[in-house]
Design goal:
Length: 317
């Protein structure tokens, strides 16, 4: 039995450098329309290209299917509803934290893919971002693939370039980029994406869900129903909480909409007249925030959020 443990360099005992490669976790929702430069499934950012419209959705495998082995639950659909006309890249990207994560040795990328029409992906890139004050970005190409209308597994191996002579700043990463062609409108399905050290293509590693969820929440989570605090002296609710796991950096924060609260020992519901929050303190470990635009609460009484969504906290690369 594999011993998965969280460590300073990711998951000890884990071979897959990609997080949420099986698309089980979608904290932001499961349907994204007209997306460009938007995070969809956890850790995956979609680009629809200039003039293009892409709809990203979570799809579910039929139980017992055998087209993709291992019994995966879900996959991502990238539906290019309107073709992009520009020369800018469109597709899907995940940034692997820290350029030191992948060493100067062979790595094998493997994944399952199909589409509504056949076409060729010219590039699947490993793109190095050297961080603030670092060297200019560089990239390597895993190579092109011919996509068909049936599920197929592809694997590609490259030796990652050395960091010799490079300057690495804060916030560095290595982006895995699927670059889709312009001028066509396929619906593209992707499943079980893996990057592992070595030249062998091995079975997809499905980590325990609690471990995978912790890895995702290092970069993003939502504060919502069940988070508790108390009303301030002015009657505005204040939530003080630790993040589910330490985040990569101090997160950016924003409201997700109108939030409702309930006082302890009181059935009355109090709802913001408009969205708004004010930070008292925030770090990689914890946050204290006040929800504004609300009235009628009893000062210093305990409160809890009863809305699905409260605030959005992001430490993405």
């Amino acid at each position: 039995m594999t011993d998965f443990r969280l460590g300073t360099d990711g998951v000890v005992g884990s071979k897959n450098k990609i997080i949420n490669g099986d698309f089980r976790i979608w904290q932001r929702g499961t349907v994204f329309n007209s997306t460009n430069q938007v995070y969809t499934a956890d850790r995956w950012r979609a680009h629809s290209g200039t003039g293009g419209v892409a709809n990203i959705t979570r799809q579910t495998f039929t139980p017992g299917q055998t087209d993709v082995p291992g019994g995966p639950e879900s996959y991502l659909r990238f539906d290019q509803a309107t073709a992009s006309a520009g020369i800018d890249q469109r597709g899907l990207e995940q940034k692997i934290e820290n350029v030191y994560t992948l060493k100067n040795v062979p790595y094998t990328l493997s994944f399952w893919i199909k589409a509504s029409i056949g076409f060729t992906i010219a590039e699947v890139l490993a793109k190095k971002y050297y961080g603030s004050g670092g060297s200019p970005n560089t990239q390597q190409n895993f190579g092109g693939i011919a996509v068909t209308t049936a599920w197929q597994k592809y694997s590609k191996t490259i030796t990652i370039d050395s960091l010799s002579g490079k300057t690495v700043g804060s916030g560095s990463s290595i982006g895995l980029n699927f670059i889709f062609p312009t001028g066509i409108t396929p619906a593209i399905d992707l499943a079980n994406i893996q990057v592992e050290e070595g030249s062998l293509d091995t079975d997809f590693e499905q980590r325990p869900l609690p471990i995978e969820f912790d890895l995702c929440q290092r970069y993003y989570y939502r504060q919502g129903a069940g988070y508790s605090g108390q009303a301030s002296t002015s009657g505005n609710p204040v939530i003080v909480s630790r993040h589910p796991v330490p985040m990569r950096v101090t997160p950016a924060i924003g409201p997700l909409g109108i939030v409702s609260f309930q006082e302890f020992g009181n059935a009355a519901v109090f709802t913001q007249s408009s969205s708004g929050i004010a930070l008292h303190a925030i770090s990689e470990s914890a946050v204290a925030m006040q929800y504004n635009n609300i009235s009628g609460m009893t000062a210093l009484r305990g409160i809890t959020i009863i809305s699905t969504d409260g605030a959005d906290l992001s430490a993405e690369l």
